[in-house]
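Researcher: Re-running this chain for the archive, since the previous output was lost when a drive failed. Same request as before.
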Amino acid sequence: MLACAITCQRQVNSRHWATSSTIESMPTPQSFLPHSAKSCTITDQQPSQHTMPTLKQIQCSIELGPSNTKLTEYGARYSDGHVESFIAVPDTDLAFTIHLTSQGYIAPGLAFFVYIDGEYQCNRNRTNLRLPGTGVQPSEYETEFRLRQKEEKTSLGTFVARDWTFVKLDTGLWLCCLGVVLR
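Model: Regenerated structure tokens:
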């Protein structure tokens, strides 16, 4: 089974940018360990495309609200089995989803894990995927997931879901407090 981890990290600098997502391909789900948030600096960059980059037949996009408007990504950086890109933080509180699709056959099973700020949020699995061939429909070897919430297990064994939202940043207050700390 192939496992992919989607790590959303909110690292905000003075230009109000945030790390949006990374896609990492790993041989098995057991090999995944959450990574600590990485710092980043964004320079003046033009959008490289309107959605998140594709990596190894997997497309990831962060989409806003009920209209599922895809956010523009900036500064995509690729390495072996890993891509990182950035999005602008919206000015208002908005719910968002992570939309994952695979194109073509990848493996007999796929597992997706979501971490935000290094904290586990949810996962989805798809098993028994078939090799393409005569009489095999694309839905039998391709996947589509729309992830929208953190899932927490309660002490009773049930799950509570909490929708993901972008929250408006109050950077003026943060900069003021930072100035006090530096003195």
